[in-house]
Amino acid sequence: MIQSYCNRNLLEAGCDEAGRGCYAGPVFAAATILSPEFYHPLLNDSKQVTPKNRLLLRDYIEAHALAFGVAHVSVEDIGKLNILGASIQAMHQAINKLSLTKKPDFIIVDGNQFKPYPNIPHQCIIKGDTKYASIAAASILAKTYRDEYMDKLHDQYPQYHWLKNKGYGTLQHRVAIKQHGLTEHHRKTFNIIPQE
User: How far is it, in rounded angstroms, from Cα 1 to Cα 78?
Assistant: First the structure.
C-alpha cells in the first residue's frame, strides 16, 4: 500500500530518475509535490505499471499534482559526470522547476544516494517508488518523458530498436551496436562495444 506522505507536516517533494542503466539516451528525473488527498488506484513504481497505464497516470499526475518538474541530463554530461552524478544533477534540475511554483520543505528520494539540495533537507528511501505516492508519481513522469524522447530518436536510428528497448542493453540492441557501431546518443563511457 503506497503511503500519501513520509512527513505529514511538511510540504514534501518526491524525486526519482529513469534511464540510469541504459546504453543510450539521456537520464531523466522528475520531482512531484502531491496533496495528502492525492490518490489513483493504478499509481505504483513505473516498472510495475503498463505503458498504457503510465500515460493515463501521467495525465492524472500533471492535472492533480500541486507541482511537478521534469529534467534530463545529456549523454555528453553523463560522460563528464558519471551516471550517478548525472542522475543527481537531473533530480536537482527537476526540483529547481518545482521551486518556481512551490518550494518544498523536505525531499524524499528513491534509492540510497543523493547530493544535498541547497537549504532543503532530504531522505533517501530504498524502493521509495513502491512506498510513497510522490516518488511513485515522479517515477511515472521520468519514465514516460524518457520513453517519448527515445521514441523520437528511434525515428532517426531505427536499426537500434529504441522504440522497443528505450536504449537499454537488450540482446537486440547489443547486436545492432555490433553491426552498426555507436551513435552520438550512445554512452561511450559505459564500455558497451561488444567484445570479440
Answer: 35
CATH dotted code for 12-148: 3.30.420.10
What pLDDT digit, counting tens, does each position of 129-147 carry? Answer: 999 999 999 999 999 999 9
CA dist 95 and 103 (Å) reads 8
**pTM for this model (two decimals):** 0.95
Cβ neighbour number for residue 192 with a 10 Å cutoff:
16
Rounded Cα gap, residues 20 and 176, in angstroms: 20
Sign (positive or negative) of CA dihedral 141, 155, 173, 86: negative
Would you list the domain boundaries of the chain?
12-148
pLDDT in tens, 69-85: 999 999 999 999 999 99
